[in-house]
Amino acid sequence: MARLLQDPPKFHPSEWDIANKMQCACTESQKSRSERMIAESRRLQDEIEKTTQKTQSDVNKKIEQRRDEIKFWKQELDNKLEQIVHETEVLLTFKTRLEKALESCKEPLDIAQKCLLNRQRRAGIDLVHDEVEQELVKEAEVLRGVIALLERTLEQTNEQIRLNRSAKYNLEMDLKDKFTALMIDDYCASLTNNTPDIRYADNALKIEGNFVSPEDWTDFSNMNIEKAEKQRNNSLALRALIDGILSQTASDMRKQCETVNDAFRNRVKEVKDAKNKLETLLAMVMDETASQEKNIAALKKAIVDKEGPVKVAQTRLEARNRRPNVELCYDTVQYRLTSEVQEITKNIQRQLKDTLAQAETELKALSRRQLSLEEEIQVKENTLYIDEVLCMQMRESVSINNF
Fold first, then answer.
1. What are the residues whose beta carbons fall under 8 Å from the beta carbon of 260, sequence distance 6 or more?
2. Considering only CA atoms, which of 274, 248, 21 is closest in space to residue 145?
3. Where, if anywhere, are coiled coils annotated (predicted)?
4. Residue 251 and residue 254: Cα distance in Å, rounded?
């Protein structure tokens, strides 16, 4: 207890002096280390600041470069989209031309078939497989061939329009993504260290989604452009083909239509010539019939006229046969009267009546010939009505246009 209350030990003045010196030395050393740390910190801050600024500047440059790349490909896609849209619109007009051309083929085909059907109503010898019928059959075949070709071309055009629209859709989707990406990079480019809405993002370094390489990114847009260009070239080639088909088919139909019309005109002329000849023959037959009827009347009158002489001669013979006794002589008078009766009877029987029978036979033949000619003229009139009135007037409405 007494030891605890004793005074603490006393230090020697030299020890006190050494202790002070050590405090000074330690303090100076600590100050030097602190100064070095401050200097190192400042250097490190300056270095990191410069590095950060450089990196940020490089990132800004890269963002700007990326924006330029996106703008370039966006412009390329825009140009190609404009081209494919324009080409599709033009192709749609060609589709309309094809549809109109196809529709215009129906009436000529219907008329050709009606003409063939009407001409089946020709009668007698006029129901002939003539040049008109041959050309009408050919015209129907040409029109069916044209319709089939136009239908196939229309199907091909519809498919090309679908492919054009598919390429347009791909371009639009790519452009939509480019537009979104450009807006995002524009936003990124606008950010600075003092922008109010910048914040920490814990998952910023986490990769989400399927990232593609820059090469794949470029190839994707380039592939869309190449596909669109391919379809555009195919569309251009198809338009040239359609132009050629429309021109050629119109020319073929027009040529065949004119050939049929020429055949109709020639046939109508032939039938009219034949009808005129028949009418001339009919007039001759009718004149001859009139002459023959007069001849028959004259023959009948001649026969009637011979009745008087026969009666006179027979009456004389009958009277002279009553002569008495020796007066009943076969004299020259008797001989001549007998020969007169025989002569007149022979002339009437063998000449006049036979000639009358022949004349009546000829008259019947002329009547049959007249009837035959009249029937044939009616056949020709029926043919002319069918060809000239029904068919040719119906064909006047046929119009082959270039679409």
1. 112, 132, 135, 136, 139, 395
2. 248
3. 34-83, 261-288, 349-383
4. 5
Distance CA 97, CA 241 (A): 13
Helix axis angle, 214-305 relative to 131-190, nearest 10°? Answer: 160
**Residue 34 to residue 32: CA distance in whole angstroms:** 5
What is the spatial distance between Cα 106 and Cα 143, in angstroms, rounded to a whole number?
Answer: 8
Cα 116 from chain centre: 24
In a domain, 173, yes or no: no
Identify the pLDDT of residue 324: 80
Q: Residue 336's domain spans which residues?
A: 282-397
Residues 153, 105: Cα–Cα separation, whole Å: 15
Residue 53, in any domain of the structure: no
Looking at residue 132, its pLDDT comes to 93
Q: How many domains does the chain have?
A: 1
Please state at what angle helix 214-305 crosses helix 307-320, rounded to 10 degrees. Answer: 30
The residue ranges of the chain whose pLDDT is under 50 are 1
Q: According to the model, what pLDDT value does residue 355 have?
A: 76
The answer to whether the CB of 254 falls within 8 A of the CB of 402 is: no
Kindly calculate the radius of gyration of the chain based on its CA atoms and give it in whole angstroms. 63
Asked, for residue 25, whether it belongs to a domain, the answer is no
Rounded CA gap, 294 and 285, in Å?
A: 14
Residue length of the chain:
403
Q: Distance from CA of residue 138 to its chain's centroid? A: 19
* pLDDT computed for residue 399 by the predictor: 84
Q: How far apart are CA 391 and CA 389, in angstroms?
A: 6
What span, in angstroms and rounded, lies between the C-alpha atoms of 238 and 338?
110
The predicted structure's pLDDT at residue 209: 66
List CB contacts of 263: < 8 A, sequence separation 6 or more.
Answer: 130, 131, 132, 134, 135
The pLDDT assigned to 348 comes to 64
Query: Residue 349: what pLDDT?
Result: 64
Give the whole-angstrom CA distance, residue 28 versus residue 25: 5
Distances (CA, A) of 74 to 183, 219, 232: 12, 14, 19
